[in-house]
Amino acid sequence: MTAFLELVTSYLALIAYIATLLPSNLIVVFSSWKKFYWRRILLKNRRKIGLICFLFSIIHGVIIAQTRGLDMLSLNTYIDYFTGLGSILIFAILAVTSNNWSIRKLRKNWKKLHRLTYFALMLLILHLLLAKQGEWDWYTWCGFFSLSLMTCLWLLRILLRWRF
Ligand code: HEM
Asked: Is the model's pTM score more than 0.85?
């Protein structure tokens, strides 16, 4: 049961995370999707979806910490699990600053700060590579493919902005 919960929460977190990236990245290749209803829904609820991602990430992390008996006071835990813990830290920063007050206070820096989400993207790709260590199921491949696709779209976005 715990293994099942660990798996479900990890993928719910991943799906919610990808849902936060979709509206701004998918239109790089499908510009006509700009006006689509689903995009407006995702954009409107992006902050809430981000918080859901954070919540499921925490549950996944806590289950792992309990089942593996991780010592949170040991430096080795932070070294061994830096990809998961690093992405949770980023999600925490984004969650805490996902409110109108922070947007007003941080102004232009808010956007810069929230670009940290792409650092979490890199960490999560590493997370799958390191945490699963070759024992990949079909759903691990789906997760890896989705994260890689988001990375490609993001890089394409940067390239297009830089060229034009
Ligand atoms: C405290 C932070 C975290 C820790 C300690 C952690 C640890 C782990 C470990 C040990 C595994 C391998 C489990 C296994 O062998 O079956 C794993 C898998 C996974 N984690 Fe995390 N993780 C953390 C955060 C995250 C976050 C933030 C996400 C996504 C937003 C995430 C998504 C996943 C996914 C999708 C898998 C693959 C599950 C599978 O295909 O079996 N993890 N994690």
From this structure: yes
Q: Residues near ligand 1 with C-beta < 6 Å?
A: 7, 10-11, 13-14, 17, 57, 60-61, 64, 81, 84-85, 87-88, 124, 127-128, 131-132, 137, 139-140, 143
Q: Tell me how far CA of residue 152 lies from CA of 59, 108, 130, 157, in angstroms.
A: 29, 25, 20, 9
Question: How does the average pLDDT of the chain come out, rounded?
Answer: 92
pLDDT tens, residue by residue, 31-84: 777 778 888 899 999 999 999 999 999 999 999 999 999 999 999 999 999 999
